[in-house]
């Protein structure tokens, strides 16, 4: 046994049991170690007011043995028990990895936040060798006067508008140079105003705060890819400005006084030529979006995902241009990268394809998104031909499925009609008396196949419409 008594031999002793004792004398605690012989039970159980003993009976068991006198000496520093080593190790094994995990998680979250902020600042506030600027203004080819002069390439306008020579025009603040004249449209996205910039009309789409992601996505796409095409709405600039003590998100584009196709069809009756011109120009724009152009002057393939008559504008020459790329997805075959953005907004329910309504669309396949555009194009084509005069007969404007669902249909309303009942919009019989409209009706039906892979492609539709246009006496159009 361990021993610190005067009779100890080399700090040890031999006995029946080992003991540790503590006693209180004049407020001080005295501790002793040693061996016991006879009457061990009596001695070991001693626990009087100022004295206590604890014993053990294995070799040197009292060397590190603590006696806890919780009753006799509560103020002593020795009354607090030590945490067993195994418990300490267990706590360390749990707490250390947990703290490390929390720290790593916080660092990752901070890194993602900084990356998003950097991406946003880089998009909105770029710098070049002309000095420190607040915005790089990107303009499109089409336009007149100042816009045309600003966007003309040194070698003259590109035929397709899909080249890479698009110039950057540096402006300190674009929004301050625009005078808003009148509000020409309102919707869930916000408002569209006619503005005047450098003496010419421009359209200013002011996004609502809850649709910030759509503004960011359109800005991102217009600044990432080359979309100059006569049947894609011409982009001028994207800006963030402060008006009336609040931040406004602006998308500045070319202005078309005829407004959207939705508005145009409500007030205009068409003849066969204009009907075909509208249909053909829309598919030309959709082909340009869907097709990937390779090379340094190329562009990724793009699917619109919200094609409808409200998102198509009618130009002065009665051709259309596609607008609103806030939900678009991009795809590049080379890297096989599908960029779907992070906009929580979904497309317009009335124009949703059956695979979207029954949630069977392959979200990892770019072709799936193109096929939903074709379904929607068929519905837009239906809206157009209903407003076309045949033998003095014409229908009033109505949206697709007007006679099957409420004016503001729910997801379930559309799912029942399109998926469960497998209905499509009705085509007036009198339209079949016209060869052009009969051909357009056939195209519509082939856009509405429930199996997405059997639908026509945009390029196939364009070629068919090009043949139809050449059958008329008017000069054929060329995208």
Automatic annotation (TrEMBL):
Membrane-spanning parts: 90-113
UniProt domain Protein kinase: residue ranges: 178-468
Major subcellular site: membrane
Family as reported in the entry's similarity comment: Belongs to the protein kinase superfamily. TKL Ser/Thr protein kinase family. TGFB receptor subfamily.
The keyword Oxidoreductase belongs to this UniProt entry's keyword annotation: no
GS domain residues: 128-177
Membrane topology of this protein: Single-pass type I membrane protein
Keyword ATP-binding in annotation: yes
Annotated source species: Pelodiscus sinensis
Pfam (any one): PK_Tyr_Ser-Thr
Gene Ontology CC annotations of this record: BMP receptor complex
InterPro entries for this protein: GS_dom, Kinase-like_dom_sf, Prot_kinase_dom, Protein_kinase_ATP_BS, Ser-Thr/Tyr_kinase_cat_dom, Ser/Thr_kinase_AS, Snake_toxin-like_sf, TGFB_receptor
Molecular functions per Gene Ontology: ATP binding; metal ion binding; transmembrane receptor protein serine/threonine kinase activity
Catalytic activity of the protein: L-threonyl-[receptor-protein] + ATP = O-phospho-L-threonyl-[receptor-protein] + ADP + H(+); L-seryl-[receptor-protein] + ATP = O-phospho-L-seryl-[receptor-protein] + ADP + H(+)
Superkingdom: Eukaryota
Cited SUPFAM superfamilies: Protein kinase-like (PK-like), Snake toxin-like
Annotated localization: Membrane
Protein name in the entry: Serine/threonine-protein kinase receptor
UniProt keyword terms in alphabetical order: ATP-binding, Glycoprotein, Kinase, Magnesium, Manganese, Membrane, Metal-binding, Nucleotide-binding, Receptor, Serine/threonine-protein kinase, Signal, Transferase, Transmembrane, Transmembrane helix
EC number: 2.7.11.30
Entry cofactors: Mg(2+); Mn(2+)
